[in-house]
């Protein structure tokens, strides 16, 4: 595993293939008592995440996590917040993203599309969580202390997962290595988030209402706990930002690498444009932005996003503990002390789950013979948004934001991926590309 640490996800998937089964055990480092159970067996995953959820807690499961979920659930089910987020996505795309891409196309320059996706995700989630407009997508590509600090913290989280605890705690004690960088990053995060919390308190006292996630602060039992609020908001911000940034860049790469899929998406968008042409031309000049309500009807586009999220899901691995000894559906016995690693990445790449063409980018697998989306059969083995009580509450919002970006970019620009790039996942908590995706843009003639 150490030898394959750079490509651990692919290595794990190859092991599952070579064994011909969906689970295996790994002994921890020598002289340690650690033991890992790694699985991509779908019945195991459903049992762990859904059927017997309470016996398999994660590090995140706590009273604070339940409150954070309640915040998100209250907001995501509110029609005002849904409408606000949908309109906000269109607004950021039209007023921030498109001018940046048009500038790149006009100057015939290259740009890292992954950085663009990350900047969009940062802007949109700062707005959704805190009600703040950051303008991180301006043509100057400005630096942002908070964006860079959150990236540093996520790198540190990964190292803490793979590094012996005593070692990273020793590094933190002596303020060296990654822990030194993490300490600096948290100081930046704390300063900016506590400032935002203070501002929101003032707005609430003044009776200023907003529909961002922070609006529910007034109903929380821990509303006077500054650290709790900081942790809650940071957690919600990370969840939204990473899912969108990851989902966007892998979708673009898969579509741009599969011309037949891009053609079908464009055909669907051209039909929509034709039906809305008068309305669009009255309100917009090039580049054009579609209404989010219209995008919800595009079957092939939705199928392509599902297929992209199947192959490259934002959270590729899930770490879970065991409270009581239990025999899993595949017959393996797991006991307290064993660390369970659910390989979501491998689940979506197993032929016995998705068929022999499981590695193909094939949106058609999500569409039935009547041209309708296949939901229940595929969703039962689609773990991208988790299962059971931990199911991602922002799933629908993620589709809305991804659609807003990809339709606008693909319809208005021809995107050319520069040759000579080796695209592979970066070792991280969330799935990003190791070296980004450099592209050139030019105006698309419809």
From TrEMBL:
Pfam families: p450
MF-aspect GO terms: heme binding; iron ion binding; monooxygenase activity; oxidoreductase activity, acting on paired donors, with incorporation or reduction of molecular oxygen
GO BP terms, alphabetized: isoquinoline alkaloid biosynthetic process; lipid metabolic process
Known cofactor(s): heme
Residues involved in heme binding: 392
Keywords in alphabetical order: Heme, Iron, Metal-binding, Monooxygenase, Oxidoreductase
Domain of life: Eukaryota
Annotated signal sequence range: none
PANTHER family named among the record's database cross-references: CYTOCHROME P450 (PTHR24296)
Protein family according to the UniProt entry: Belongs to the cytochrome P450 family.
Protein name as catalogued: Cytochrome P450
Native species: Papaver atlanticum
